[in-house]
Amino acid sequence: MIATRTLTSKITPQSMALNAQIFGFHGHSLVTPHTNIDQQWWTDTWIEDKVTARYIESKLRSDEREMLTRPLVFGDSLTDDTYLEWILQKARKLFLVLADIGVPDQIFGVIDDSWDDDDLPIPLDMVPRLALSYKPDEALERRFYETQYKYLLREIQEGHHTDYEDTEVVPMEIGELPQTADRNFTSCLLTVHFFFKQ
To answer: What is the pTM of this model?
Structure first.
């Protein structure tokens, strides 16, 4: 049985570029957008390598960077951790999601409310509790909800069956692209690589 899944609900320059690359006509063309293809999913190793003190600082304004070295507001005498230490130890994925949707500065409020990566995935009806904006913003909340799955990869384990929810990302990449493609798109052979947890 063959099943299909819609990966994007609207045509964007990025989806057009991906299709152009898949079907082999991504050369120099006036009608093909030339755009980078975003990483669609992240492993824990990639997240750990990406979210460093330097990366975090690069996403924040100078006044926000100063807050990174302050002790946590809710810590009192329970912890001496700073915001930077909390992000690096407990909230790398949350920070990536916030940076991805354009509100990395909201990490401070999220941490003050004791959220961390163990709380992910956050159900859509709970996302407003993160207070991502001063006024309720349903579009921003939906972007957070959808984007979090990019960083919550459940890796395929050899010999195990995994059922993925509609919101989850399946860890696969196109491994070999065709040299030429039938202009009628009636046939095209692609090799898909699934990434297994080792």
So the answer is: 0.69
